[in-house]
Amino acid sequence: MTLLEAIRKKSHTDDQERLTPVLLVEEPESFLHPSAQSDFGQVLAGLADEHDIQIIATTHSPYLLNMKEPLANTLLDRKTFRGALKETVRVSTDGEKWMLPFSKILGVVPEEFQEWSQIFSAGTGQVVLVEGDIDVEYFAYFKDKHADIYKIGEDVEILPYNGKDALKNTQILKFMIGRMERAFITFDLDAKGEVQKKLEALELVEGRDFCAIGEDSPGGRCIEGLLPKSIKSKVYADNADLVQAMGSVVSKEKNDARNDLKAKLLEATKSSGLLSKDFPHFKKLFDQIHKGLFSVDA
After folding, report:
1. Helices vs strands, H then E, count in the chain
2. Whole-model pTM?
3. Do 219 and 252 contact (CB within 8 A), yes or no?
4. Chain segment 230-286, per-residue pLDDT in tens
5. What are φ and ψ of residue 184, in 5° steps?
6. Residue 6 Rama label (left phi>0; alpha psi -120 to 50; beta)
7. 3-class secondary-structure state, position 8
8. Exposed (0-12), middle (13-18) or buried (19+): which is 216, by Cβ within 10 Å?
9. In whole angstroms, what is the distance from residue 295 CA to residue 293 CA?
10. Which of 41, 17, 12 shows the shortest CA–CA distance to 29?
């Protein structure tokens, strides 16, 4: 009602009555579920754009932050001295990690929101959530080069959640998938023991809402496990030093070697010239995701 009154005053035909209103909203997250908080924030931003009215909302909720226009968020810090309140200062929130200062002040773990940063500002249609950027590139490659086995659909977004630990925070995960029309989650097979129970606690069903990616073999419990043996054999033979480093007891050396091998396997796949029939495991994966996304009881 206040917004309608502001619109009326802004568009009044009498110059004496016409005003340029600023609408102030105090802590609209009160009594709202996190998903509703996010939706309400988007509604406010949309109304501000549609009616050219400035809306200022105060909040203690990370879900109400404007993810599409980070510069629209202002972080204020009230200083104290010997228990007495002093001046209020504006905290810098520039750069790619603009959310981190907000996270610290709002009492949430910054990394948990950072992992989901790409998905916060994504669309809310049909989405496949994958573990990382490498997975996104595999999906994009098959969509472009092997459309006959890529059955997921043109309008389905493939988005990374950046690591299995993101799936363990069921509160944020529930919030994320609640924003979407339909979501299907994939994760590496080697993380199944840690992740599946978390997903089932949200009443998600294997096959319909999520699946593990990989083959149950040493080094194959991930998306690279779906590759033809010819590609893996060649890459491993050409990069024996990286394969050896994978057995390092030094975590950084091991992780660096693993990431380098993953990148080389991806490039080898793109340049292999193999036909769709040479990727039966990927076909099975895409069929499973399509069936889950478009199942009648989803």
Report:
1. 13, 8
2. 0.69
3. no
4. 999 999 999 999 989 888 877 888 889 999 999 999 999 999 999 999 999 999 999
5. -125, 135
6. alpha
7. helix
8. exposed
9. 6
10. 41
